[in-house]
User: What shape does this take?
Amino acid sequence: MEFQAVVMAAGGGSRMTDLTSSIPKPLLPVGNRPLLWYPLNLLERAGFEEVIVITRKEIQKMLSLDTKMKLDFVYISDNVDMGTADSLRHIHQKIKTDVLVLSCDLITDVDLYKVVDLFRTHDATLSMLMKKAPEPTEVAPGQKGKKKPVEQRDFIGVDDTGKRLLFMANEADLDEELVIKRSILQKHPRMHIRTGLMDAHLYCLKKYVVDFLVENRTITSLRSELIPHLVRKQFSSPTSLLQGLDNKEEGRKKKEQASLDIYSFIKEDNSLLKPAPDNSCWNDHRGDMNETLHEGEKGRCVLKIKKGRRCRGVNTLALYIEANRQVPKLLLNLGQEEPLVHGTAQITDRGMVGSDSIIGSSTQIGEKTSIKHSIIGSACTINNKIKITNCIIMNSVTVEEGCCLQGSVICNNAVIEKGADIKDCLIGSDQRLETKGK
Amino acid sequence: MAEREAPGGAGPGAAPSVPVVVQGPELSREEKLQLRKEKKQQKKKKRNEKGTAAEPPEPGTAADPAQPRVTPHPASPPASANAPNDGEKPPGGKSKAELRAERRAKQEAERAQKQAKKAELGQGAAPAKPRLTPTEAPSVVKRLPEHVQVDDPAAQRKLAKKLERQQVPLRQDYGTKVNLFSHLHQYSRKKPLTQQMSIPSTVIHPAVVRLGLQYSQGIINGSNARCIALLEVFKQLIRDYSTPPNEELSRDLVAKLKPHISFLNQCRPLSVSMGNAIKFLKKEISCLPDTLREEEAKEKLQGTIDNYLREKIVLAAEAISKSAFEKINDNDVILVYGCSSLVNRTLCDAHTQTDRTFRVIVVDSRPRLEGRETLRRLVRHGIHCTYVMINAISYVLPEVSKVLLGAHALLANGSVMSRVGTSQIALVSKAYNVPVLVCCETYKFCERVQTDSFVSNELDDPDDLIVQRKGQAQLGGWAENKSLRLLNLVYDVTPPDLVDLVITDLGMIPCTSVPVVLRVKNVDQQ
Assistant: This one.
């Protein structure tokens, strides 16, 4: 088998606690489907038949997905705070081939074969998907104050072709200067450094990376520790390790650290592929005298940059709302044939429902209610004479007469009484809003 | 005499022989003459109908080239090996062999008959006519390989059906083609075959998927590199293969290899070196004795593949390099074109192992610009190099002492098939009286005959020709312009009279001796 897919659905959604306090992040409804559905749908469309989903027990109970794939749920308990790398270590016995790791908050229609093709063609250690960071256009409801203009940026260095990942550093780790090793510049004299890219949390990893993770227990998170480590390791030669071993014979600790280098995990299968590149006339870089693939350079990291708008992770509230807005178009792209307005919804006044609103099942919508650009969950009761614009209303919400809702997010089981006028608010679940409230 | 007629009458297609009962010397003269005439006619008829299927005992020069040309021809493009035959041929390979055996037995009987008749009749023996030029016998049909029949919808439908059966996706052609080359495939690099496959590929082995991607993206380039990579991947395939129950390894493994070969063919048309290697491998597999266990058989196969690699590619390269650098003299100026692994190796060896001083002129051409790689390798070794584009060859040729070229394949009439531009270099060199030497291993010799570069060629991605200068691409919108076609050819054919010497691992031979080498090889293999 070539690949195994792993979806990380145990995350807590630490950046949107208002929403996730009541609902765990993988179950947040986006376009009336749980968030977890989107990465699973991506995998299903690509042709995967089995997926390993790492999640918490209670999530699986609440999950009801209809997918043809075989989902293998692995539970990690709530108490232990496990990072993503820890989770991979937890399931390392199930992993027998190269892995494709996805995060549960990825909503995209990227062609997965492009990321995987780069991985296969260049025999890379890591292949990841990055997207152009969207401009933050609107202030999310419930958040006071302007957004910080400079968030935690990533500095990503790519080579001329745009495919090879040379350098990665987060702004938080740097003081004032960006330090680039000379060996990188010697091999790739032209490097483009981009700051507008965000990680989409989709990684293709070789099997020996998982083996390395098992041995090396200091790495807890994929994104912040393992990936930069791999990127840095591309350009460090293994010979320097041997020197380390010779010089420091005292201190077994040093030896242990040295042996935990990832190169020692790469099986020597490369003898097969050695003569062919010598004879072929392809070269991955120009302008210097070196051989094609730089002997001694074993771990290659490649990346695919997704242009266009249809790729987002749902990490913060603003992104969540943006995602919901994009979802109707996305669903069309994904070939979902369900009509936007669910069959069992009872809508008395059809003309008032905008064309890109999604209405869930068993929802009742009263007369003279106008709904535009909104997503309404299932089992809601929306009475008469209500104006809803740009809202996200989750399941089982009751909205009484005469309300006017704009740009808000209303969580499960909330009740909004008559005459309320709500603008840019975030209403938690089970809340009750009084009459004529603002 | 009646007995002689009887076996002849048993075969199909034989003329209904009139059982003539000769009474003996009571016949009158006229009747005897009449008898003889009839017998002569019957013999003629029989000889015509037997056709040229089986090997004749008389060495006929017309027979030999026809036979190796015709029989391996349908076999050499392995992709079309499966295509259903013409209507005239009986379906299935086994019955063909049976029919052939039958016909052979009949012919033996006929021959014995004829000998006896000759002895009896004395002067009535039919003059040993020179063998009729073998016309299209109904049993062996000249089939065009599929990859040069892209504009024939019937052939394409057959291909699509075959690929569907093997569960290999069909790659779509891209862009309008030049009319002269509309019979060839033209693919786009941006639409790889993996687009239509599921990601954890189950039908095709992942190593083969990777290889196919590397071929189609141009990462593994050059006929030696492609063949080496192919054989290594086949070794891995054989390692991961396990015989299903109730199947023979020798037959099942060949059947399992076919979808992978079709997949590689769809990614990039197979090169001649790859085709020969595949033929060799298939023969080796089907010749495996049934007594071997699976593990032993697999090891034996891996051993033969290693042998083939070592002998035909690695050692051959050494041998060629050794004999070629004897041709390099002191103060020579050598012209090379593009990037050929053999030529590079020769030059590097000549530089390190002898102390002759020579310099090299590297000629390059768009869009591949492979000469840059040659330049890099030679300069790294310390050889003095000059780099020109192909439009400048008539300016540099007056100072060149010899031209050293690599080849993709050597065809049976002595033509050299190589990267596009090679024939121009040979032509201009001939005009300047500069000797042209071609280096080629024998495993790249091919029984095909081509006199032009149109019939069987490869069309590369036409978008490679688009050049971006200052942010503008002049040809960028070529697809919208209905009267504009872009042509990116990969190979061309150099006629044999432009080449002075071919350096192979069997020695240095003139171009016209290629059919001899092929014949010797065929006899060896049989």
Observations:
- Residues 294-325 of chain B form the longest helix (32 residues).
